Amino acid sequence: MSYIYDPKKNILFHKKTELPLKGLEQNFIGACSKCNADVVSISYHIYDDQNAVAAKCTNCEQLYAIIYDAFWIWIGEHLIDCDPHCTPALEEVSITPASEYQEEASEDLQVLQAIPQKKLSTVFTPAEIDSMFAKAAGKKYVRQYLYRARKKFDDFQELFDVYLNI
Ligand SMILES: [Zn+2]
């Protein structure tokens, strides 16, 4: 197939060309052609002068590349293959497992890793958690999500008595 997606890094390829990432918004964008369940966007990409949206069925987890023109008029959709390293569960798409970062665990990262996932997800969205882990590990992160997460640090401390400073 001509589209490949790496959900861990949110990279969409068309015939081995990487389509630049534009955003990571999750929006409902249609129905799955296989099972008719909701399809939700994962990431938005620039595709020449058009737009490509990587999206996923919330039920059967089929990935789609949906192509729109410059004015967001629907052009077509394609089923896409996951990158071979990809993990199928929806959670794992948005949350990078803590273990992946262990080799270069900074102090911030150790603090984060010590917090049970359940506590984190009580306060933060998966995208925010992912950004905190990435920032603590010195990796690429989505600034907007980290800012959003930071606004919740006081709440988190109040609830769980853990002070985050990422
Ligand atoms: Zn489906």
Q: Can I get a quick summary?
A:
The protein is α+β, with helices and mostly antiparallel strands and 166 residues long. It is built from six helices and nine strands; from the N terminus they run βββββββββαααααα.
As a whole number of angstroms, the C-alpha radius of gyration is: 17 Å
Question: Helix count, per DSSP?
Answer: 6
Outline the biggest β-sheet: 9 strands, mixed
Oligomer: single chain
- How far apart the termini lie comes to 40 Å
What is the structural class? alpha+beta
Helix content percent band: 25-40%
The domain tally reads: 2
Order of helices and strands: EEEEEEEEEHHHHHH
Task: Show unreliable segments.
Answer: 87-97
Describe the structure in your own words:
With 166 residues, the chain is an alpha+beta fold. It has two domains: 3-83, no CATH class; 94-160, no CATH class. It is 28% helix and 31% strand. The chain is built from six helices and nine strands. The chain has helices at residues 90-94, 107-113, 117-123, 126-136, 143-150, 153-160, and strands at residues 3-6, 11-14, 17-19, 21-23, 28-31, 38-47, 50-57, 63-68, 74-82. Strands 1, 2, 3, 4, 5, 6, 7, 8 and 9 form a nine-stranded mixed sheet that branches. β7 and β8 form a beta hairpin. α4 crosses α5 (143-150). The radius of gyration is 17 Å and the shape is elongated. The model is unreliable at 87-97 (pLDDT under 50). Residues 32, 34-35, 37, 57, 59-60, 62 line the site of zinc ion. Zinc ion binds at residues 32, 34-35, 37, 57, 59-60, 62.
